[in-house]
Amino acid sequence: MSVAVVTGAARGIGRAIAERLAADGYTPLLVDLADSVRDAVPEGGAAVVADVSTEEGWGAIRAAAESLGPVGVLVNNAGITRDARLGKMTEEDFRAVLRVNLGSAHGLTAALADLIEDGGAVVNISSRAQLGNFGQFNYAVSKAGVIGLTRSLALLHAPRLRVNAVAPGFVASEMTDAMPAHVRERVIAAIPLARAGLPADIAAAVAWLASPDAGYVTGQVLYSCGGRSFA
Ligand code: NAD
Questions:
Q1: Among residues 26, 139, 216, 223, which one is catalytic?
Q2: CA distance linking residue 231 with residue 227, whole number of Å
Q3: Which of 11, 45, 112, 192 has its CA 20 to 30 A from that of 35?
């Protein structure tokens, strides 16, 4: 079976995606800045410690993928938040979020595209926050950009590859654990399906978009957010 490259896979959503794609028969290549990614590798998989926002990182990930075999799926999942009110957000925080959340998906897809086998898939992780989120100007812009990137890559690589995005809503992970408890409670109360998403919910959406069942789907955004995108 082919290789599934998953970025930001040391924990949270990325780790769940790597586990799910491994269960679906892919050889997972887990990528993360954190050394702990080595402890997250499902049986038969591999890990590479790399920064997805740098050319050096893309080179290291490409070398690791080439050593494992043809790539079937690339999941651009790594992401960060640096929230602040307008006027309090530094230029560095604005740019850092764009570089990691958006620049990495562009740069890594460009670096790996020719390694992805015909009929393969790229899945980018956007966010419901791309619709706009108070205090997340940098994050919302980066995740809206991921959708423009997804559509542009879908056009560029059709018909050889399919490129889609998943837009999670609020998902229980270390990223959202960092939010104040009262904010978390308010966000969950506004979700029509009345619960936080689980990393496995997002992994299932990614697995479907990567699978032949989604063989006629490209350039699309699949919201996995408990209905929050329209509520
Ligand atoms: P997380 O913070 O728990 O995990 C992110 C992982 O990415 C970490 O292991 C981190 O080390 C890694 N990472 C960060 N920068 C990196 C870099 N430059 N190079 C390599 N690895 C890097 O986050 P999560 O909640 O699992 O989120 C995963 C993705 O889903 C992100 O893109 C996030 O924006 C998106 N998302 C999350 C939620 C949510 O509610 N948790 C909602 C919508 C979208």
A1: 139
A2: 6
A3: 112
Asked whether residue 230 is assigned to any structural domain, the reply reads no
Cβ(11) to ligand 1 under 6 A?
yes
Is 223 among the catalytic positions?
no
- Closest CA to ligand 1's atom 32: 79
CA distance 61 to 49: 8
- C-alpha–C-alpha distance, residues 80 and 175, integer Å: 8
Query: Does 159 reside within a domain?
Result: yes
**pLDDT above 90: residue 178:** no
Domain enclosing residue 112, as ranges: 3-224
Residue nearest to atom 31 of ligand 1 (CA): 79
Q: What's the pLDDT at 24?
A: 97
153 occurs within a structural domain: yes
Backbone angles phi and psi of 8, in degrees to 5 = 65, 40
User: Across the chain, what does the average pLDDT equal?
Assistant: 96
Give pLDDT tens digits for 63-91: 999 999 999 999 999 999 999 988 899 99
Instruction: Tell me if 231 is assigned to some domain.
Output: no
Tell me, using a 6 A CB cutoff, whether residue 53 lines ligand 1: yes
